[in-house]
Design brief:
Layout (H helix, E strand, L loop, with lengths): L18 H7 L5 H12 L10 H7 L4 H14 L2 E5 L5 E6 L49 H18 L5 H12 L5 H13 L5 H13 L5 H21 L9 H13 L4 H15 L4 H13 L5 H31 L9 H10 L2
Length: about 350
């Protein structure tokens, strides 16, 4: 095979990456963790740099929990020193010099040589090891012939749906669903099927859906189908009312829809009415305007369309009453809005007689 020649034509405005990092650390690290390390390296000693965990998450399209897990990984690997205040919040990050690793020495976070520890949690969600933190303990080995058979079948089904051979972390993720989240084999299969049918083959996305189902107490395929139907119906109602075709809701739009359906508990007909009024008022789709309407209705404890009708009638009466009170005052003002004149009747009569 012909040897490739690599040439470098951009020397300025560059970030220097140690070869030790590439040779000894990068290979075993999660790809998202590598992105975080490179981001920190890029902004090292940058006088114009003012970064927070939130800005790092936004720039790398990750969650803040993903960034914190990356910090813990590189801190454990010895490439990052993290300073925290008394409350435990991170105040300073310091990149450390990469240590040379021999072939016989254990890799950072080598799963067979590192001690098992309990995963640290930033929230109440169960945090899976496979896709987020390679330092976290693996799922407990599954005992029993039936369980092993079901896992083997699920891995085969997952490869068919995703159209590829699963990586080790992807296999561990599916095992985590089964063993730690206690999802049945049928539910995991439906999870894979529904995500792929909606155009999502990323295991990160599938994992987030699994978390959502676990938090909502979904334990059967029937419950999952009902949840999917409610989600699809709510999204379709809003997008159709706004005249939005050929696309699903954006992330911010989906947050509004979840707020209206889950937090406010509005039915689809009330949400549709708010969207209709939004179009009449603004002549364009506006989730912010619709949210203002629905928030006002929520504050007035609106639960049915007839409640909206009563609210409209009450508002109309208030406007009519206000107009009636304003009219007499305006009329009285107009009666006096001219210059008064005084007449000498005797003089007018004399002029009238003389004219004859």
């Amino acid at each position: 095979m012909k040897t490739l020649t690599l040439k470098n034509k951009f020397q300025t405005n560059a970030t220097l990456l140690p070869n030790d990092f590439i040779d000894n650390y990068m290979i075993d690290a999660n790809g998202e963790f590598v992105k975080v390390y490179l981001f920190l390296l890029r902004h090292l000693d940058d006088p114009c740099s003012s970064i927070t965990i939130s800005t790092i998450a936004d720039c790398l399209n990750n969650t803040e929990n993903d960034i914190l897990r990356a910090f813990r990984y590189w801190e454990k690997a010895g490439l990052l020193r993290v300073e925290r205040d008394e409350s435990g919040r991170i105040t300073c990050l310091e990149l450390q010099k990469a240590a040379m690793l021999s072939k016989s020495s254990p890799k950072p976070f080598d799963t067979e040589n590192s001690e098992k520890r309990k995963p640290e949690r930033e929230d109440m969600r169960p945090q899976p090891a496979p896709l987020s933190d390679t330092a976290a303990p693996k799922a407990v080995p599954i005992d029993g012939f039936r369980a092993q058979k079901e896992i083997k079948s699920l891995l085969f089904i997952a490869e068919q749906y995703l159209g590829k051979t699963l990586t080790r972390t992807e296999m561990e993720t599916i095992t985590y669903f089964y063993d730690t989240l206690h999802m049945s084999a049928d539910l995991i299969e439906y999870l894979l099927e529904s995500c792929v049918e909606n155009g999502h083959k990323s295991m990160h996305y599938i994992q987030k859906v699994a978390f959502s189902w676990h938090e909502d107490g979904i334990e059967t395929v029937a419950q999952a189908k009902e949840e999917s139907m409610l989600y699809s119906r709510s999204c379709y109602t809003v997008l159709n009312a706004f005249g939005i075709k050929n696309r699903g809701p954006a992330s911010a739009e989906l947050d509004y829809i979840k707020k209206w359906t889950e937090e406010y508990g509005f039915s689809s007909d009330i949400i549709e009415e708010a969207c209709r009024r939004t179009i009449m008022a603004t002549h364009q789709p506006s989730f912010e305007y619709a949210d203002s309407i629905l928030t006002r209705w929520h504050d007035r404890n609106i639960r049915h369309l007839k409640d909206i009708t009563c609210l409209d009638e009450e508002h109309q009466k208030e406007r009519t009453s206000g107009r009636r009170q304003a009219k007499p005052a305006a009329a009285a003002k107009n009666l006096n809005n001219f210059e008064r004149r005084s007449y000498d009747m005797e003089s007018l009569e004399e002029k009238l007689l003389n004219s004859n």
